[in-house]
Amino acid sequence: SPAVSLTGYSDTLDKATYDGTYVGNLSALAPDRRGALAALSDRSSLFRLDARTLKPRGVVTLADESGAALDSEGLVADPDGTYLVSSETEPSVRRYSHTGELLGRLPVPDDLRTAPEGRARANGSFEGLTLLPGGRTLLASMEYPLDGDPADLVRFQTWQRTRHGDFRLGAQYTYRTDPGLGVSEVTAAPDGRLLVLERGFTAGVGNTVRLQLADRPGRGTALRKRLLADLADCPSLGATAKQPQPNPLLDNFEGMAVTGRSGGRLEVLVVSDDNQNDVQTTRFLRLRVRA
């Protein structure tokens, strides 16, 4: 599309292992303050990748307060050196040290809790997590609508950082998805607008993945959006798919990070969650986005 160009892809981590840990199920990406790329698996592993080669350089295991695994989906590398991680099970947002030590947990509104405590559907809550420019506002995106909400309306919850560094609950926003799609990731652009990845899957057809640009959260609670690109329209660059796809480049794209700027465009890295499945691929896409 005029707004998005694909500069390359990499399957280098597909079905790889590192230090005895499967490198896959990747759900989120975040550049950290040490110049590395943090990559989160939804099976509780937090990897440190070389930002250029994408090769793993370290891994830690995350757990909840009782030592149980997380359904870890969203990731923020906080400038203070800690990591904020969202999990879909409750849902929750927890803070961890770079060694994986659990440091705390953020409050979550009752209505966003998984049913029967709240109105969120199982496996449909905090899928995306991002820190807005300036580092004061944290935002989590729900993947699917709450019970009782319109079929295309998902909620984005914010938190505001206090003077002591903790986060307190902030405003809630609404976002309208394209029909049949959920929000798999949200990432703040440097100007505070939101890059939103919408995703769906149809058996026998494959994935639908669209990159949208939404308003910066602020005035008003309804966030407008415009389509930047449908990834099915990208050139395939010789990529192959292990199951039917509208474009062999496509897979279950779930994580996204802004990694830099070049010539007035954002450099954006996107990764797919292979679900440790033989017919899916862990694939990275490098995009240049004019936002």
Descriptive key words:
0% helix, 5-stranded mixed beta sheet, 23 strands, 291 residues, 49% strand, 4-stranded antiparallel beta sheet, mainly beta, Neuraminidase
Detailed description of the structure:
The protein has 291 residues and is mainly beta. The protein has a single domain (4-289), classed as Neuraminidase (6 Propeller), CATH 2.120.10. The protein has strands spanning 4-10, 16-18, 21-23, 26-31, 37-41, 45-49, 56-61, 72-77, 83-87, 92-96, 102-105, 126-131, 137-142, 153-161, 167-176, 182-188, 194-202, 206-214, 222-223, 225-230, 253-262, 265-272, 284-289. 44% of the residues are buried. The mean pLDDT is 97.
Spatial order of the strands forming the largest sheet:
12-13-14-15-19
Under CATH, the topology can be stated as Neuraminidase
Order of helices and strands: EEEEEEEEEEEEEEEEEEEEEEE
Under the CATH scheme, the architecture is 6 Propeller
Question: Which descriptor suits the 3D outline?
Answer: globular
Largest sheet: 5 strands, mixed
| Total count of helical runs of at least 4 residues | 0
Q: In what range is the share of β-strand residues? A: over 45%
For the residues shown, what is the average pLDDT? 97
- Count all strands and give the number: 23
**Radius of gyration using CA atoms only:** 18 Å
Number of domains: 1
The helical percent reads under 10%
The CATH C-level class name: Mainly Beta
Distance between the termini: 12 Å
Question: Runs with pLDDT <50, length 5+?
Answer: none
